[in-house]
């Protein structure tokens, strides 16, 4: 059981300072289980609590785990330089969870501005660290569109390992499947900077389009449109950890 005052619940979920949260409640903007509650100190069991703030439905999450279908033309940075930030695609409450300066959700790793597909975000530092750690080798599947027709030699080189300019140790694709003359499906278990683009360049080809379709055993759902996000379910979290 996690018993919390309503204003604390709102505060923990990113609706502003404690004072702002108390104000929202006292002004009648918050309803719990369909009934408006104007007592900011009223206590509720927070776990699985459903509430509305100004008519928008929310569910209490102790920690935030979510997926975003990253569209092209967005940077995975809080302070983007040339394109809008992916964080602008999330509601303010999700961005501001927890209050302080370093609060809110963070992307688990980064995708390039022009890369699309599955991106995970969380405010659970341990989860972010575990997922980003090179020791964990969570497989990530990329659908790659190439400039030049792919040949068998290039596929064999990607599978055998190529040396990139920042590390003498070769990096290899865990799987590499030809899906068409200009299409590859590639699985990587590390997450080096621009890794797919650099590996493809190292075998003499060029990436024209890049889409991440899967992390671990979790696919990007067909019904999650570019720019849309949703909370991860317990099952989704288990799928990420599971081997494909
Ligand atoms: N590899 C890349 O080159 N870019 C990405 O965005 C992800 C993987």
Specify the CATH architecture of the largest domain.
2-Layer Sandwich
CATH topology of the largest domain: Alpha-Beta Plaits
Total count of strands = 17
Question: What are the low-pLDDT stretches, counting only 5+ consecutive residues below 50?
Answer: none
Q: Output the structural class.
A: alpha+beta
Could you state the CATH homologous superfamily of the largest domain? Pseudouridine synthase I, catalytic domain, N-terminal subdomain
Q: How much helix is in the residues?
A: 10-25%
Topology:
Layout: E1 3-5, H1 6-12, H2 18-26, E2 30-32, E3 35-36, E4 43-45, E5 50-53, E6 56-59, E7 65-70, H3 92-95, E8 106-107, E9 116-122, H4 125-132, E10 140-146, H5 152-160, E11 162-164, E12 167-171, E13 175-180, E14 183-188, H6 195-202, E15 207-215, E16 218-219, E17 229-231, H7 234-241
Parallel strand pairs: 9-15
Antiparallel strand pairs: 1-4, 2-3, 2-5, 5-6, 7-9, 7-17, 8-9, 10-14, 10-15, 11-12, 13-14, 15-16
Bound molecules: uracil.
Structure in words:
The two termini are 35 Å apart. The model has no long low-confidence stretch (mean pLDDT 94). This protein has three domains: 3-59, RNA-binding S4 domain (Structural Genomics Hypothetical 15.5 Kd Protein In mrcA-pckA Intergenic Region, Chain A); 65-132 and 220-233, Pseudouridine synthase I, catalytic domain, N-terminal subdomain (Alpha-Beta Plaits), CATH 3.30.70.580; 139-215, Alpha-Beta Plaits (2-Layer Sandwich), CATH 3.30.70.1560. The chain is elongated. Strands 7, 8, 9, 10, 13, 14, 15, 16 and 17 form a nine-stranded mixed sheet that branches. A four-stranded antiparallel sheet has the order 3-2-5-6. The chain has 244 residues and is an alpha+beta fold. Helix 1 (6-12) packs across helix 2 (18-26). It contains seven helices and 17 strands. Helix content is 22%, strand content 31%. Uracil binds at residues 111-112, 115, 194-197, 210.
């Amino acid at each position: 059981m996690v018993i919390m005052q309503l204003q604390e619940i709102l505060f923990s979920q990113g609706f502003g300072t404690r004072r702002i949260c108390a104000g929202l409640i006292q002004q009648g903007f918050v309803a719990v289980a369909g009934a408006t509650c104007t007592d900011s100190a009223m206590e509720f069991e927070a776990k699985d609590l459903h509430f509305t703030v100004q008519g928008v439905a929310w569910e209490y999450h102790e920690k935030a785990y979510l997926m975003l279908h990253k569209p092209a033309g967005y940077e995975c940075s809080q302070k983007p330089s040339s394109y809008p930030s992916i964080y602008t695609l999330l509601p303010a409450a999700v961005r501001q969870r927890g209050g302080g300066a370093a609060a809110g959700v963070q992307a688990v790793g980064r995708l390039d501005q022009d890369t699309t597909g599955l991106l995970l975000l969380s405010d659970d530092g341990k989860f972010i660290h575990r997922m980003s750690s090179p020791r964990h080798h969570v497989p990530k599947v990329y659908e790659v569109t190439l400039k030049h027709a792919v040949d068998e030699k290039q596929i064999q080189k990607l599978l055998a390992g190529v040396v990139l300019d920042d590390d003498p140790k070769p990096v290899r694709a865990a799987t590499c499947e030809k899906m068409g003359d200009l299409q590859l499906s590639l699985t990587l278990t590390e997450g080096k900077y621009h890794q797919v683009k650099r590996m493809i360049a190292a075998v003499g080809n060029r990436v024209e389009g890049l889409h991440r379709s899967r992390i671990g055993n979790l696919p990007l759902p067909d019904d999650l449109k570019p720019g849309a996000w949703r909370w991860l379910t317990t099952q989704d979290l288990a799928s990420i950890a599971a081997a494909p």
